[in-house]
Specification:
2 copies of one chain form a homodimer. With 325 residues, chain A is mainly α. The first copy, chain A, contains 16 helices and 2 strands.
Chain lengths: 325, 325
């Protein structure tokens, strides 16, 4: 069995032996650029760990790991165009560096290459099942992105709608990465069902933790400016819960602040954070996360492989939930 | 065996029973809009005819036919964004009607749905082979689009580069549609090879005829304004061949006209067309088309099925070459 760090090395070696360096270079250079930016490779690691649950031959699942990473990067490139984001992982986004058209077309090609990697899985008998799972996840990610954009224009988003949105946009791919790795290793259907519950709920915790850290995290550790979601008027769980709990003038003020775009962003972030603290929103979010995490771990417990096999995956889940991976 | 018109009805019934009407409607409405614009359904017809060569059960290949049509429409949506085209088939393009972001995201979802239809083929054993072919074609279409955009900025495009570009951007999908239909019907590999040669060369003729009609066609029959390629300074086969044949002042004038954007477009179109006529470029193009068509039909002749089975496909090929389908 491999540790998380060993799996990461195995995956990096695979990406290096599969560079995007074909012609025309105007198409492939943006793909190489975003893939070379690094990132934590969480999804391919989950794919390899899903495979490792059911055997030691993780190398056969490397094409699946690559498929989910290439898909993830495709979605970043197109999302960044839609969001007009100038920076990604501290560097210029693809459309910023190469233009919007290059971002669109290279993104399309990455989506296609994701399917091409998937097809190269060692266990060819798994292809129909892998394709079904991949398509389901990919459609959900698009639907999630659409809901996310819709919610920017709505003032009446409900907490359950928000949770459904992050389930689609973020958790589905985390779930799918794990499940597809297990499919590649020949896992039986009942185990796949449990793994799906585990993965989806870990994915929800992962996003909730992102929401928490965006407001309450140490900017130096987290690598982002604190309060970015508040500045952008994002209706995350924190804000939606606060709007649910707040009464009277506080509620009016919070609603007003979260639809404003003031010159003094720091003052807005400070005041919204104060209100969230008064309402103990962080505690609410932590409690919610713990419940979801409990559901996740219970499902992992029901996967019919020896507990020792699950250790690295449980470790990885904890890192994801704390966003320390 | 079904006629072309019967196959078109069978395909239309299938598309009507698979509407894009899920939630969120902001994602699905643009997909339904472009799919509902109609068009000639050439690629799905070719898929069904590829299947019909090898048996009468064409219904099993309907998901493949749908996959190539959805893919084709995805490529139109994204190409129209990149080209900033306001109109498609006489109606507002998707990005014009719904915005660029909706065009990007709905296009992405259509690309994914193309794979999802492919997966639903009756002959599940064919999925790995279908996926390989689909990925190859899809990558080639992206590469072709990139070359097409590159050529807009280049003044030294060679005829063989142009032919390679249209082979990727247009002919690959015509070839692939036919081949994937045949794969769905369980065709043997040697026949697939001949069909690929047939399809690719018919696809080249199809694009060359488009180039010819754009300059020399009857605008009423063709449905486009005559000389559109000339106005846009597109280096089609006609122009590249003319630049090769022209000498002295004529060559200089043609090169100058084809990099100009004058107020009086009609005068430019008239003068360029005159030069093409002097150089007998239409005859050159027709001769080239005939040679390619000959190669295509010879390959179809070598497909090991009774000649009577090939009749509708030969008929269809003639329609494509004349763009009368």
């Amino acid at each position: 069995m491999h540790t998380i760090e060993e799996l990461r090395d195995i995956f990096e070696a695979y990406t290096e032996s599969h560079p995007f360096n074909r012609e025309p270079q105007e198409l492939y250079a943006p793909m190489a650029y975003i893939m070379g930016m690094g990132g934590k490779r969480l999804r391919p690691l989950l794919a390899l760990m899903g495979a490792q649950l059911f055997g030691d031959a993780v190398h056969g699942a490397l094409p699946v790991a690559m498929a989910v990473e290439v898909f993830h990067n495709f979605s970043l490139v197109h999302d960044d165009i839609m969001d007009e984001a100038p920076l990604r992982r501290g560097q210029a986004t693809v459309h910023q560096k190469y233009g919007a058209n290059a971002g669109i077309l290279s993104g399309d090609a990455m989506l296609i290459y994701a399917y091409e990697f998937l097809r190269q899985v060692d266990n060819q008998a798994a292809i129909p099942r892998l394709l079904r799972e991949f398509n389901r996840v990919a459609v959900e990610v698009c639907e999630g992105q659409q809901y996310d954009m819709n919610f920017e224009r709505r003032q009446d988003v409900k907490i359950e709608e928000y949770l459904r949105m992050i389930e689609l946009k973020t958790a589905a791919l985390i779930e799918g990465s794990l499940v597809m790795g297990a499919v590649a290793a020949g896992a039986p259907e009942p185990d796949l069902k449990e793994l799906a519950v585990f993965g989806r709920n870990i994915g929800l915790c992962f996003q909730l933790q992102d929401d928490i850290l965006d407001t309450f995290g140490d900017p130096e550790k987290f690598g982002k400016k604190a309060g970015g979601d508040i500045v952008q008027n994002k209706k995350t769980f924190l804000i939606l819960k606060a709007l649910e709990l707040a009464r009277g003038e506080t509620r009016t003020e919070l609603a007003r602040l979260m639809s404003s775009n003031p010159e003094d962003e720091r003052q807005k972030v400070r005041r919204v954070t104060e209100i969230l603290q008064q309402l103990k929103i962080r505690e609410w979010a932590e409690q919610m996360k713990e419940e979801i995490q409990h559901t996740a771990l219970a499902a992992l417990g029901r996967v019919a492989v020896p507990d020792s096999r699950k250790a690295p995956l449980r470790d990885m889940a904890m890192r994801l939930i704390r966003r320390e991976a």
